[in-house]
């Protein structure tokens, strides 16, 4: 079947990856160009933030998301310099950055007090339960605590207490949450993986980058193992990344480059594939020239 005739409901799966989440903006543009739109969304970490914007009412969500990313800076998401990080770590004993900057981003672009119930599309946000090390799929209630928890990379951000549980980044256990999208009723999956689709992180040079690099290696392995399992049940269109460059997931200075290259890679890929029932179309680590 043509790629724009995927069986519904179509679930968009948006993975985590820090500043590499800019690639999802380009991937979404390519999907819109061929008429593929989501019936439901599920995300982890930065993917949950992008998915929440996409799920908002109105027809301008992709444009709104592009504008957000074009203005994003490292200081907003990860406030403070090296000395500030040392002070935060000394005081907290657990993390380098406060999540106040991330909270301000959520309030600015989704609205203070925004709830899942306000969204136009079903949204699932994946977090990790600290007590059980199991993924939790949050689908109702206030958005901000769920999004902050989903992005709470251990060592980078503090854990979030929400609904009687202590929560960390969902990427620890489900960075590309395909199982969760199936549980929400998706009959086709479109995966927007930005952790390791084609981009390799630069060799870490700071403690923060070491923490991110370690987390992303684990994320990559999860996707490699899980994608074939999901593809045995439904069509899984796994968008590729562009040619690899060395880039830190804390670096927001290459947003336009990431967006444009991801658009071209996804566009080429979508023009070449035909979906023939359940199976894996593309996959983790696929790179388009």
Topology:
Blueprint lengths: L9 E5 L7 H12 L6 E5 L1 H9 L6 H11 L2 H4 L4 H11 L7 H11 L12 E7 L4 E5 L4 H8 L9 E3 L2 E5 L1 H4 L3 H6 L4 E5 L14 H25 L3 E4 L16 H18 L6 E4 L7
Structure, described:
α10 (207-231) links the parallel β7 (188-192) and β8 (235-238). The model has no long low-confidence stretch (mean pLDDT 86). The two termini are 25 Å apart. The chain has helices at 22-33, 46-54, 61-71, 74-77, 82-92, 100-110, 143-150, 171-174, 178-183, 207-231, 255-272, and strands at residues 10-14, 40-44, 123-129, 134-138, 160-162, 165-169, 188-192, 235-238, 279-282. With 289 residues, it is α/β, with parallel strands linked by helices. The protein contains eleven helices and nine strands. 41% of the residues lie in helices and 15% in strands. Strands 1, 2, 3, 4, 5, 6, 7, 8 and 9 form a nine-stranded mixed β-sheet that branches.
| Terminus-to-terminus distance | 25 Å
The overall average pLDDT, rounded, is 86
**Total strand count, please?**
9
Helix fraction by DSSP (H/I, runs of at least 4): 40-55%
Strand content: 5-15%
Please write the string of helix (H) and strand (E) elements. Answer: EHEHHHHHEEHEEHHEHEHE
Give start-end ranges of low-pLDDT stretches. none
- Tell me the Rg in angstroms: 17 Å
Shape: globular
The total count of helices amounts to 11
- How many strands, which pairing sense, and closed or not: the largest β-sheet? 9 strands, mixed
Structural class: alpha/beta
